Amino acid sequence: MAIKFELLKESTECKARLGILETPHGKIETPIFMPVGTRATVKTMTPDEVKDLGAQIILGNTYHLHLRPGEDLVEKAGGLHKFMNWDGPILTDSGGFQVFSLGDRRKITEEGVEFRSHIDGAKKFISPEKSMEIQNKLGSDIMMCFDECAPYPASHDYVRKSMEMTTRWAKRCIDAHKNTDNQALFGIVQGGMYKDLREISARDLVEMDFPGYAVGGLSVGEPRELMCEMLDFTVPLLPKDKPRYLMGVGSPDYLFDAVIRGIDMADCVLPTRIARNGTAMTSSGKLVIKNAKFKEDFTPFDEECDCYVCRNYTKAYIRHLFNVNEILGPRLITIHNLHFLIKLMENIREAIKNDNLLEYRDEFYKKYGYE
Amino acid sequence: MAIKFELLKESTECKARLGILETPHGKIETPIFMPVGTRATVKTMTPDEVKDLGAQIILGNTYHLHLRPGEDLVEKAGGLHKFMNWDGPILTDSGGFQVFSLGDRRKITEEGVEFRSHIDGAKKFISPEKSMEIQNKLGSDIMMCFDECAPYPASHDYVRKSMEMTTRWAKRCIDAHKNTDNQALFGIVQGGMYKDLREISARDLVEMDFPGYAVGGLSVGEPRELMCEMLDFTVPLLPKDKPRYLMGVGSPDYLFDAVIRGIDMADCVLPTRIARNGTAMTSSGKLVIKNAKFKEDFTPFDEECDCYVCRNYTKAYIRHLFNVNEILGPRLITIHNLHFLIKLMENIREAIKNDNLLEYRDEFYKKYGYE
After folding, report:
1. Which of A176, A179, A318, A326 is least buried, going by the fewest C-beta atoms within 10 A?
2. Annotated active-site positions of A, please?
3. Other CB atoms within 10 A of residue A79 CB
């Protein structure tokens, strides 16, 4: 077995849990937020900086790495860890989500997905087997099954067929996965916003006995309440002794929602993407640095924050960097935002330990505001 | 006096010198290469990274900082050092070079230069007095006189008139400079490629007793031999006990040329600019990372280099970063190139100490090639 999950504690006031996930490249404390390093780099950051922030695991994107530089080059480099100089755990997605996002440029069949590269229009094909082959070559600690993430909204009939195919693909992924000793393959529960389909998907995947499970197809545009409802229904269908991963979630409110419902892992490009647009996450909510009111503001983003950026730079200076398009601007906000989310998850883990997560959440919202 | 220059040694084999320049923000070992932080940031780098590389002084550009964010904002922030979080010495240029580079968009009179901003076309005016006012507000350790850098080639008549005006402006700069206790003002010798004019310029400026002197108007497109000839002629006209600064020089060969002729300080955007285009400076010459031959090259830029980049990253990885336009690419080459030049200057200082600079230069060229 490539990974080992130890459940340390279950909250007495909600479904939140504390755990330790052991991987071939180190241990992860859960619940955890995972920064995204799409193309073998967490945008603007060195791996050392990412590690110094306290990040314990990062993501890589199979679709992007397949197109450039290609999994063969990464394999020749000694795998993704060595290629990008990150010696901690890595999770790779399956490429499914990106491929399905291509819209008109992709065609789904039982065999897999034919698509045209968003870069040069070249014809490509990813099947469950191909996704496993790519992820095996990348050498990530945690791999994801190739699935279809159904759009929202979608009809019961569409989602049912899609979910059933995802389940057949999950079986093919298990069969194609060549490196079970060093790489753990997670199943992905689909079923859209339909509880009966979620139930079938979870049942069939749990039967396949994956070392971990993701809840897919959420945070795709549905109302927040509906996401919570689906989590409330789906998470209890998953085995307690396996890690649970909610894909594509990275705003503080969604992270609270997820953890309180028993999710152990989450990832999102949000903190790094909004950083590059000049938006900082602070304890009193989001801050848009280009706003004129910060022109002569010689205080840090967040007086409560002890990150490198808040200890050394003022809003006025960072606003200047964005005004003149200097790379240091996005760099500094990326550091701050990742620190913010990593620290938030540390606090969440501490609150679970102390059985006061709900109180901590309410305190947090009092200042941050409710989005 | 804002600065103190101590001449430690003169080479026995050429005009190279070793010195210590004390400024209000720390000591500088000369000869020194100064990285350029045009708009209150050395492009892509944090000040801590710049310092960790061994940089002892950086440049700021008066023209750029005047336009954005404006010297008044920087003054309110507590000066340029505090604004940008760099507590070491800073040298600011006068804005002259940038203003004259605007071509059709500027008009020179005895009073100063009227120009249109390259950003929004707004009408602006910089005179010797205005340049001093801006630099006083920025609070740099070393300020430069507002001068005209004559183009190359230019007629004797044009250069003579320009040089004479520069001399009159130098006097006005001295009169307008309001903070002589904390900021040292350097004079700039002009005279183009005409020795008689260089002689007059140097004589008149030396009479004004500046705490340091720049040789301006070189490295502006003239043949390298001509630059060397002008340095051979001009440098001996300057007082031995004052630092000598060659503006706009940053390639290894030009640095050797300058130091051997008695120059103590140099600056250039070259290492940071070519980094952003994917060109690394190595002990065996320049390396263009996008070159296809590096696709599967899993070795560092330079086997001899002990910088952070060469210790951790391969050419194949950095080539990938450039291929997918990731910011980490320019970041890594910037670190490497600045390290290369800072290390080169360290080696040059060591060679002067050991009286074997010419031998070191010849050894260097054997591998680097002669550009």
Report:
1. A179
2. 93, 267
3. 18
More confident site: B80 or B99:
B80
Instruction: Please answer whether residues B171 and B146 qualify as being in contact, where contact means their C-beta atoms are separated by less than 8 angstroms.
Output: no
Taking the Cβ of residue B117 and every Cβ of chain A, the question of whether any pair is shorter than 8 Å is answered with: no
Burial A322-334 (b: 16+ CB within 10 A, else e): bbbebbbbbbbbb
pLDDT at A74 over 90: yes
Q: Are B170 and B147 in contact, with CB atoms under 8 Å apart?
A: yes
Confidence (pLDDT) at A371? 59
Residue of A nearest to B298 (CA): A77
- Give strand ranges (E) for chain B: 4-10, 17-23, 26-30, 32-34, 58-60, 90-92, 106-108, 113-116, 123-126, 142-144, 184-189, 213-215, 244-246, 265-267, 279-282, 285-288
Contact B317 A85 (CB under 8 A): yes
Q: What is the pLDDT of residues B123-153, one digit of tens each?
A: 999 999 999 999 999 999 999 999 999 999 9
SS3 of A159, please?
A: helix
The per-residue pLDDT for range A260-301, each reduced to its tens digit, is 999 999 999 999 999 999 999 999 999 999 999 999 999 999
At A51, list the tokens.
């590690």
Contact B69 A316 (CB under 8 A): yes
Using the predicted structure, report yes or no on whether residue B90 has a pLDDT greater than 90.
yes
CB contact under 8 A, B85 and A323: no
B273 touches chain A (CB under 8 A): no
User: Given pLDDT bands bounded at 50, 70 and 90, which one contains residue B1?
Assistant: confident
Question: pLDDT (tens digit, 9 = 90+) per residue, B275-327?
Answer: 999 999 999 999 999 999 999 999 999 999 999 999 999 999 999 999 999 99
Structure tokens at B136: 């006083």
A 32-71 residues with CB < 8 A to B: 39-41, 43-46, 64, 68-69
The residue of A46, A299, A333 whose CB has the most chain B CBs within 10 angstroms, and thus the best one to mutate to test that interface, is A46
User: How is residue B3 annotated by DSSP?
Assistant: -
DSSP per residue over A251-317, as a string?
Answer: SHHHHHHHHHTT--EEE-SHHHHHHHTTEEEETTEEEETTSGGGTT--S-S-TT--SHHHHH--HHH
Query: In terms of Cα–Cα distance, which of B4, B5, B31 is closest to B16?
Result: B31
Contact indicator for B190, B162 with CB cutoff of 8 Å = yes
Q: With pLDDT > 70 as the criterion, what percentage of chain A qualifies?
A: 100
User: What's the ipTM?
Assistant: 0.97
Determine contact: B277 vs chain A, CB below 8 A.
no
Q: Give the gap in angstroms from C-alpha B93 to the nearest C-alpha of chain A.
A: 19
Q: What is the pTM of this model?
A: 0.97
Which H or E element spans position A112? Answer: none
% of chain A residues with pLDDT over 90: 96
* Distance separating alpha carbons of residues B240 and B246, to the nearest angstrom: 15
Q: How far apart are CA B9 and CA B51, in angstroms?
A: 26
Distance between CA atoms of residues A126 and A71, nearest Å: 13
The distance of Cα B150 from the centroid of its chain, to the nearest Å, equals 18
Residue-level pLDDT at B103: 86
Residue B39 is nearest to which of A39, A44, A326, comparing CB atoms?
Answer: A326
- Cβ-Cβ contacts under 8 Å, A77 against chain B: 298, 314, 316-317
Task: Please say whether the beta carbons of A107 and A115 come within 8 A.
Answer: yes
